[in-house]
Design a protein that fits this description.
Shape of chain A: globular
CATH topology of chain A: Rieske Iron-sulfur Protein
CATH superfamily of chain A: Rieske [2Fe-2S] iron-sulphur domain
Structural class of chain A: mainly beta
Order of helices and strands of chain A: EEEEEEEEEH
CATH class of chain A: Mainly Beta
Strand order of the largest sheet of chain B: 3-2-1-7-19
Strand content of chain A: 35-45%
Largest sheet of chain B: 5 strands, parallel
Number of domains of chain A: 1
Oligomer: heterodimer
Largest sheet of chain A: 6 strands, antiparallel
Number of strands of chain B: 37
Helix content of chain B: 25-40%
Radius of gyration of chain A: 13 Å
Shape of chain B: globular
Largest interface: A-B, 36 and 28 residues
Strand content of chain B: 15-25%
Number of strands of chain A: 9
Distance between the termini of chain B: 74 Å
Structural class of chain B: alpha/beta
């Protein structure tokens, strides 16, 4: 479990908002939905690289602030008819602490394989 | 304090409109009691014709439901006819003995249909066309009997005849005059009308005078006999020969009546405690029977009942439309013409098209249109405003088409475009792409086309063109789309319905809106949440808690996001004025935070580009220390007030435009709007501040200030409309605040003033801002009230630590 990293207290994640986690040059957007689920995706829209962390969160989707692509936070896939996929990361919440697994179980190539 | 008592007699459209207006401007002033002789709540009498025609139901035409009366604490007595007014005791008494005391009495007893005094007029099967009861009687008759005769070929008679025909009866219309609707149409137009009604199956008996109605064996009417000896069989006779103001009650109480209850310009009768409005009234010798003048009366009466005491009703110019599906006619003013007038006529009988305008001294005094009536509203405006038409007299009959293609115009020329023609400039979508997507993906709605092609999904200025391509490609199916546009896919409700619900149901949180209006998604989407956040904030200042997660990133981070994710920072420069100290502070900040680019904006301020989000709070702290506040260059909010130098320096300047600009900016800064909002003040008509392409522009002239509204320099340039001219700076401030507030309260989110002004019409805005002094003052007060909560500098708050997490990145080191 060494690849799980504590990133923030759950209460420091704003509901219907996001925080940005920077690891070296990798920026990850960590979201909390209205139903208090936590999701993490790479902070770059598959369209033009817009910062998804700055978008509006609704349901389990985030709308990119640059050109309004909608990204499904559970899969990283763009909502049809847009086509694209962003890398997702595993998260878990334990004793009020949010953990992020940076070494993803699947590579970006795998998780977005359907769009290769 | 004991509330004053207001009693209204007559639960009809004019009276209830007065009550509604009164509740709007002075809620709680009166304890209100309403008597209605009918058993129904207030309904839209004008729409009885569509009900008769089967196009609407009685439910559809109810204006104020029983619940509405209850919610507003109005005591409603239905089915109770008031028989007596005791002016000494100030009491009215209904025929069943119900009594109500009053401090103010409003008579809105309406009119009664005039029944021809011929033998047989009281037979069963002979009715008028006035209320829901009459419509029900006609609908019943149409299911049992075959032959109907309508006496009277005026507006009401023809609507009744059309409805009965649609209900399956054989209908003859009897008319005394030599052509139909002679009070509204000239002879050529009336002939065209008669022909199209004959094509629908109606029969006409013109220049016939009714002698008697004949009783059949069953006791019911069976025929109509005429003075010339002719006769026509009838199982149902509808009399629609005119109306008489209902003055009996007023007369019995000794209130002066002539043709109607005589009122002055404040709608007061000879008894100062008693007001009267509607069809029962005689004002300057005229009794009106159309709804628009009655509503104008209602507004004035409400104003006086509210004790504002400023409005005056000075009579109305009326226009007419016939509510018979498939027939368009319009008339207004003196459409016959006479001595000293000229008539311009266009006539194409085989296409069923006729246009006539009557001109006197280069002004329009009347119009009569049949067939293509699209320009009716425009002619009516020209007529009421007394516009000099010399400039466009040659083309006046062909309408206002030179005004461009933002509305219905583009269909024809879209068909002619090649596939390579670019429709959506923002997303580079060509006509061919759209047509292909529509055909391949079987798209039927604008939303679908937007989702699949991106056309019209950014700035929206090509929406009309995209709709035209859609209409042309899928044909008739497209027109079947609902005319009401929901705010977004999360709801069925339109912007207007949502705005009204927030106000009327006192919804004060996003959750309350979702629940009350049955939102289809758990927490909305990126389209509706910002809209709702704005509507709630604008309606409940100081009460609604702003939800930053329902704001677009620019408004959440108080800067403009750029394509690389960095932000731009624009400090406010009041009226575009600055000084060496401020400039030095900006220079210092730019160097300290290594701002890659500094640019002067079009709104007379300085933009610092490429700032990292994390640096924003510290930068704001430095700017704040130098006296700057946020310029809101990122928001759907008051942006800038652009000024020229004005009389202080300029040899042409007529007023202190810079000083006025600073005052206006101090008044309006910080306010959130449906969309961005820009002001400008020019010191003379040379207009160096470009005030005539701003949302609210002031052009100073020697004698005062011209106020211009609804301009836009953006995607589609629109020059402002002149709202009015005022004399003092204080008036400029008051009109500016009122106009801004009207826009804030009534425009749709993301609708700029330019399309809003075009949608609601300049006359509406003039009515609210210029003509209605009390309304203007109330709007301005509401604006100032909201500003108490809005004028807090968001930069300073964040520099002092508010919302810190928004700007912090969590850094993980290996």
């Amino acid at each position: 479990m060494s690849d799980w990293i504590a990133i923030a207290k759950f209460e420091d994640l704003p509901r219907l908002g996001a925080r940005v986690v920077q690891f070296d040059t990798v920026r990850v957007a960590v979201f909390r939905t209205s139903s208090d689920e936590v999701f993490a995706v790479k902070d770059a829209c598959p369209h033009r690289g817009g910062p998804l962390s700055q978008g509006i969160v609704h349901g389990k989707l985030v709308t990119c602030p640059l050109h309004n692509w909608r990204i499904d936070l559970t899969s990283g896939e763009a909502v049809q008819p847009d086509r694209g996929c962003v890398h997702t990361y595993q998260t878990r919440v334990e004793a009020g602490q949010v953990y992020l697994r940076l070494a993803a179980s699947k590579s970006a190539a795998e998780s977005c394989a359907s769009h290769a | 304090m004991q509330k004053m008592k207001l009693v209204m007699v007559g639960n009809g459209m004019a009276g209830m409109r007065t009550i509604e207006e009164l509740l709007k401007i002075a809620p709680g002033l009166y304890d209100i009691t309403v008597f209605g002789a009918e058993l129904h709540p207030n309904y839209n009498r004008i729409l009885l014709s569509p009900v008769l025609a089967g196009e609407q139901t009685t439910q559809d035409i109810v204006l104020n439901s029983m619940d509405w009366y209850a919610e507003h604490g109005i005591h409603l007595h239905l089915g109770k006819k008031v028989g007596r007014i005791d002016r000494k005791q100030r009491v009215v008494e209904a025929e069943d003995g119900t009594r109500a005391e009053y401090d103010r009495l409003l008579l809105a007893t309406g009119s009664t249909p005039f029944m021809l005094p011929v033998p047989g007029a009281d037979l069963p099967g002979v009715i008028a066309f006035r209320d829901i009861g009459d419509v029900e009687a006609m609908i019943n008759a149409s299911s049992q009997y075959k032959r109907a005769v309508v006496i009277g070929g005026g507006l009401l008679g023809l609507e009744a005849a059309n409805g009965l025909k649609l209900r399956g009866m054989e209908v003859s219309v009897v008319h005394l005059g030599s052509w139909l609707m002679e009070r509204q149409l000239d002879e050529p137009a009336a002939r065209l009308l008669q022909k199209s009604l004959e094509d629908k199956g109606l029969k006409f008996l013109l220049q016939k005078q009714t002698a008697e109605l004949v009783k059949g064996e069953s006791g019911r009417v069976c025929a109509v006999n005429f003075k010339d000896g002719d006769s026509v069989p009838a199982d149902l006779v509808v009399m629609a020969v005119g109306i008489r103001p209902n003055t009996a009650l007023a007369e019995s109480a000794g209130i002066h009546c002539e043709r109607g209850i005589v009122v002055n310009d404040t709608l007061q009768t000879y008894d100062p405690r008693i007001y009267a409005v509607g069809e029962c009234v005689s004002h300057r010798g005229v009794a009106y029977g159309l709804v628009a003048p009655l509503f104008e009366q209602a507004k004035v009466a409400a104003n006086h009942l509210a004790e504002y005491g400023i409005g005056r009703y000075e009579g109305s110019v009326t226009s007419t439309k016939l509510k018979v599906t498939g027939i368009d006619l319009f008339s207004a003013g003196d459409f016959i013409g006479g001595e000293g007038t000229e008539s311009l006529v266009f006539s194409d009988p085989s296409c069923g098209d006729y246009k006539k305008v009557v001109i006197k001294d280069n002004k329009l005094v009347g119009a009569c249109l049949y067939g293509d009536t699209i320009n009716g509203a425009w002619y009516f405006d020209l007529l009421r405003e007394g516009t000099d038409i010399a400039q466009f007299r040659k083309t006046i009959l062909f309408g206002q088409h030179h005004l461009g293609d933002s509305g219905h115009g583009p269909a024809d020329h879209v068909a002619a475009l090649p596939d390579k023609a670019e429709i959506c400039g923002c997303n580079g979508v060509c006509k061919g792409d759209i047509v292909k997507a529509i055909v391949d993906k079987k798209l039927f709605t604008l939303d679908e086309v937007r989702a699949h092609t991106k056309a019209s999904s950014s700035c929206g200025s090509c929406t009309g063109l995209v709709e035209a391509v859609l209409a042309q490609t899928v044909g008739g199916d497209y027109s079947a789309a609902p005319s009401k546009k929901p705010l977004c896919k999360c709801t069925e409700h339109s912007h207007d319905e949502i705005i009204a619900a927030i106000k009327e149901q006192k919804l004060k949180s996003m959750r309350a809106v979702f629940d009350a209006l049955e939102w289809k998604t758990p927490d909305g989407c990126a389209n509706c949440r910002p809209a709702l956040n704005y509507y709630l904030l604008a309606r409940w200042p100081g009460e609604y808690q702003d939800d930053k997660h329902s704001r677009f990133i620019n408004e959440r981070a108080h800067g403009n996001i750029q394509k690389d994710g960095s932000f731009s920072v624009v400090p406010r420069m009041w009226g575009g004025l600055t000084n060496p100290k401020e400039l030095r502070a900006i220079a210092d900040v730019a160097e300290k935070y290594q701002v890659p680019e500094v640019k002067v904006t079009g709104g007379q301020r300085i933009d610092l580009f490429g700032v990292k989000k994390e640096d924003l709070p510290a930068m704001w702290q430095d700017l704040s220390a130098a006296g700057f506040v946020s310029g809101h260059a990122y928001g759907k909010a008051l942006r800038t007030v652009k000024t020229c130098v004005g009389s202080q320096w300029c040899r042409f300047g007529t007023q202190d435009s810079t000083g006025l600009g600073v005052k206006l900016e101090q008044l309006t800064w910080g306010s959130w709007m449906p969309h961005k909002f820009k002001l400008a003040v020019s010191g003379c008509p040379r207009n160096c501040a470009e005030a005539t392409i701003k949302d609210f522009g002031v052009v100073c002239v020697d004698s005062g200030y011209e106020l211009h509204v609804g301009g836009n320099g953006g995607i589609k340039v629109r020059v402002t409309d002149l709202l009015c001219k005022v004399e003092t700076e204080a008036q400029v401030m008051a009109y500016c605040g009122a106009f801004t507030q009207l826009y804030r309260e009534e425009a749709h989110y993301l609708e700029r003033t330019a399309p809003w002004v075009e949608r609601v019409g300049l006359n509406y805005i003039k009515g609210r801002i210029v003509d209605d002094a009390a309304g203007r003052a109330a709007l301005f007060e509401r604006f100032k009230y909201g500003q108490q909560f809005a004028q807090v500098d968001p930069w300073k708050e964040r520099a002092e630590g508010a919302d810190a997490a928004e700007f912090q990145t969590i850094r993980i080191t290996a």
